Amino acid sequence: MAQPVEVRGWVMLTGHEGAPAGFVSAENLADPVYGILLDCLHVLKTHQGFRFGRLMIEAVRRWTREQTKK
């Protein structure tokens, strides 16, 4: 029987009008001293300046709050 997998990382892709705009990834490090690492944040040049980065950072913040509740 399969065992539940511990979630330690998170990736979000974002798009606009059916095309990719960027992505963000974060990791809940094994050592709690270091907390959550926002590992990558990329927004395509054609989509920069439209708040995609800010929205993805806020999504990481929400995910971080969910992780710290556990």
Short overview:
With 70 residues, the protein is of the alpha+beta class. The protein contains 1 helix and 3 strands; from the N terminus they run E-E-E-H. A 3-stranded antiparallel beta sheet has the order 1-2-3, covered by helices on one side.
Beta-strand portion reads 35-45%
Q: What structural category characterises the helix and strand content? A: alpha+beta
- Shape by Cα distribution: elongated
Helicity range of the residues? Answer: 25-40%
- What is the N-to-C succession of helices and strands? EEEH
Rounded to an integer in angstroms, the radius of gyration calculated over CA atoms is 14 Å
Write down the overall mean pLDDT.
88
Strand tally is: 3
Please characterize this protein's 3D structure:
It is a single chain. It contains one helix and three strands, in the order E-E-E-H. The protein is an alpha+beta fold. The protein has one domain. The longest helix is centred in the C-terminal third of the chain and has 18 residues. The chain is elongated, with a radius of gyration of 14 Å.
